[in-house]
Amino acid sequence: MDKVEKLMAHFQSIHYIFDPAMPDGQKGLSVDDYVYLNPRQTSAELTSTVAEEIAHYLTTSGDITAQDTNEKRKQEQKARDLGSTLIVTLQDIIDCYKEHFTNVWECADYLEITRHSFEQAIKTYKKLYPSGIDYQNYRIIFAADGTIGVYEFCE
Fold first, then answer.
1. Sheet holding 133-135: strands in order across?
2. Beta bridge partner(s), residue 135
3. Nearest 5°: phi and psi at 60?
């Protein structure tokens, strides 16, 4: 089961519809408990889209497509932040560290997501944990420049 299938299986109350009539510039749309997806996306793009649309389902109230008020823009950002943490967990960051990855694209490829989604997740974690976080046997630091420090505790 790939990452998209796992996300969809975890949020079974949502109906997912692949709509070939969606315009190329629109990757997804959440309306009530339906998520419409543009099928003309790479697997990595689709994973990011599904995560963001699930986050809209969980957090968004009303129609925010116009993005013409601060409240709508805040809801959009909240959904993007939550979506990014659905597809990049703290464990994923540790796994990338264990694989000795040093570049964003290596981590994104390993996690089967877009580079942009990985970078968004790091920005989100930086906002959530400005001083870093202790997770399992590791200390994870999110630097302002988008880099990550992972330090294993000695026992």
1. 133-135, 138-142, 148-152
2. 138
3. -90, 140
Ranges of the chain with pLDDT below 70: 64, 66, 155
pLDDT at residue 81, rounded to an integer: 93
Predicted pLDDT of residue 106: 97
Residues paired with 36 in a beta bridge:
17, 29
Map residue 80 onto helix, strand or coil: helix
Q: Which two tokens stand for residue 140?
A: 């994870």
Kindly report the length of the chain: 155
Cα distance between the two ends of the chain: 35
Residues 50 and 4: beta-carbon distance below 8 Å: yes
Give me the phi and psi of 150, to 5 degrees please. Answer: -120, 125
